[in-house]
Amino acid sequence: MQQNNSVTEFMLLGLTQDPMRQKMVFVIFLIFYVGTVVGNLLIIVTIKSSRSLGSPMYFFLFYLSLSDSCFSTSTAPRLIADALSAKKIIPYNECMTQVFALHFFGCIEVFVLILMAIDRYVAICKPLRYPTIMSQQVCTILIVLAWIGSFIHSIAQIILALRLPFCGPNLIDHYCCDLQPLLKLACMDTYVINLLLVTNSGAICSSSFVILMISYIVILHSLRNHSGEGRKKALSTCTSHIIVVILFFGPCIFIYTRPPTTFPMDKMVAVFYTIGTPFLNPLIYTLRNAEVKNAMRKLWCSKITSESKR
Q: What's a single GO MF annotation on this record (predicted)?
């Protein structure tokens, strides 16, 4: 339960205090956010509309794009709006909501990336059993479990946040609410809570990264036995996945697996995995995937044709 405290709102420092740089932040991250939403929605619509993208890989890509959009939305709109605000004030309840949303959609992304690695492992290492192992029912159950696991993780985070008493100051040296910057404002010894944070978020990030990298090493090793064309296609897909894993987990591990110390680069590292990575994912998965590009081309060509006939 929420502890008694005298703080009803927080003030965010944002990325910069310089007026000119704040305008640059507004323009740059507005472009990033619009690109993230449009790019991921384009992938979502394409997968839902195309019969050729009905495999489990694209089923999981659909949910990765959905989580990317929501994950970016949990922080980007406030960062963009605050760039034009003299006082970047966020109410206590909204701050706690942001903590929950940030961890919920971030954790979904972690689990979906793991499911995509499992899908590629089965497809490449056990191709004959692939339709049975990765059936539609199994994929749906795995996604439901990912949502449940993310909810449990986020509930644990918000319980830790609600137990923090705040008696002033209320200035958060960050552009969003997260447990680590909030720990610095708490009127209590936060050693145990920080330990729980590292055990929870840090362990999820680190263990997931290790599992993913081991799985892709096994997959790449098994590609030696495939034909030239099959190896090239599988290698292209796995390379895309590995790029996404490194871009997402690198900053996460840096933020959540260390003692309660701050570095000048913390905010920029957080920006990269909360806003930068969701922006890059659609580019990585479309530019390196011929099937997605062909499906997009057919979808928009059919729409243009239908519009011209009216």
A: olfactory receptor activity
Q: Which residues contact 35 (CB under 8 A, 6 or more apart)?
A: 279, 282
Label the pairing between strands 89-91 and 171-172: unpaired
Say what the pLDDT of residue 33 is.
Answer: 95
Entry pTM = 0.88
With a CB cutoff of 8 Å and minimum separation 6, the contacts of 55 are none
CA–CA–CA angle 121, 124, 125 (5° rounding)? 75
The predicted pLDDT at position 66 comes to 94
Pairing of strands 9-12, 89-91: antiparallel
What letters, b where the CB count within 10 A reaches 16 and e where it falls short, cover 55-75?
bbbbbbbbbbbbbbbbbbbbb
C-alpha distances out from residue 134 to 26, 39, 45, 139, 219, Å: 43, 27, 23, 6, 17
Give pLDDT, residue 259: 67
User: Diameter of the chain by CA atoms?
Assistant: 69
10-residue mean pLDDT profile of the chain (310 residues): values are 69 87 92 94 88 87 94 93 88 93 93 91 88 93 95 91 86 88 86 82 87 87 73 77 86 79 77 89 78 79 63
Answer yes or no: are the C-beta atoms of 96 and 33 closer than 8 Å.
Answer: no
Using alpha carbons only, give the angle 147, 177, 96 rounded to the nearest 5 degrees.
Answer: 60
Q: Tell me, what's the pLDDT at 303?
A: 64
Any idea where the domains of the chain sit in the sequence?
9-309
CA distance 83 to 229: 49
Separation of alpha carbons 116 and 274, rounded Å: 20
Pick the CATH number of 9-309 from 2.30.290.10, 1.20.1070.10, 3.40.50.620, 2.60.40.10: 1.20.1070.10
